[in-house]
Amino acid sequence: MRVSILTWNINSKKSAFSDLKSIIENEMNADILFIGLQEVYFTFMSTSDLYNRVKDCVGSYNIIGFERLFGIVSFVLSKNNLQSESFRMGLGFLNNGYKGFTSHYIQFSDTNEKNNILFVNTHLIAHEKNLDSRMKQVSECFKAISSAYNIKEIDTIILSGDMNFRVSGIDREKVYDLIIEKNYEEILKNDQFNNFSKKYPRFKEGNINFQPSYKYIAGTDDFEVKKYRVPSYCDRILCNSKYKHNFTEYKSLENIRTSDHKPVLLRMEFEPIILDNSELLSDITDKNYIYKLYASEMFNFFHENIFLIGIMAGIVASGSYLHFKNKIKRFFEKN
């Protein structure tokens, strides 16, 4: 089975959707295409309007999953009608926006066996100094996933997004020289992401043979120098799977210049051969974490509806209560 994953921080650029359409057109050979976007901040654009924007981009694909958490947006495309469940959780307003994750649990059949993939799109706290906070957010994300899904039955987790790990402990000018030399291996020795790899060794990544994906001057291929940011591999795609899989291509789409981030794309193939049948997140499962999920969902819901609540007062407040009550009811039914 062929799976493509794209992660892209679009920096609130509406023109990104025309780029997105061309990207999807180039991925029509994929059986499943997962796209995770960050910083999709458009004033007065409702979720339904955003969904229609996405729908205009997908061609012959079916949208089998769509989720939005403030500026974090993800969707799953397939040419088949697969089963999909979605879940999201906020990690709070930090620095330059809302941080958190969205996820999609997909079931499918391959060689008469039932398989599944959990796709996760995340946006973690920014800036080089916040490594400890990023690692804490990763842990919060995994605990939430372990509580929201039956983790023992998940075959594959694809974790992607603007994880905001920075190149640290090396002079910025030295990094520029290494980029010119295409000595990416040396840059990666100073990547904060190495802390993640040590803590979560089951998550694998393709070989990085491309320039850092951040921070560019939008509309150009030039790195931003005025803000003294060290070019970094903020945007990552990782896989944790029980099944044999191959990373066929892992790259930055360097010809796309809309945002201050370059899109990062992974193409991979799965084979129905189990290599490791142990639980994917066995070391971090926290059953008591479920109480935080309730609080987070309540906050997300009322924040998204506060504008209408303020205008329509009692009518919307009543409808919001019923909607939230139904969401809680469905949550208990699934758990």
From TrEMBL:
Q: What biological processes does GO assign it?
A: phosphatidylinositol dephosphorylation
What is the name of this protein?
Putative phosphatase
Q: Name one Pfam family in it.
A: Exo_endo_phos2
Transmembrane intervals: 306-324
The species is Hamiltosporidium tvaerminnensis
- Can you tell which superkingdom this protein's organism belongs to? Eukaryota
- Give the matching PANTHER family: INOSITOL 5-PHOSPHATASE, TYPE II INOSITOL 1,4,5-TRISPHOSPHATE 5-PHOSPHATASE
| Keywords for this protein | Membrane, Transmembrane, Transmembrane helix
List GO molecular-function terms, semicolon-separated: phosphatidylinositol-4,5-bisphosphate 5-phosphatase activity
Q: Which InterPro entries match?
A: Endo/exonu/phosph_ase_sf, IP5, IPPc
Q: Where is the Inositol polyphosphate-related phosphatase domain?
A: 1-276
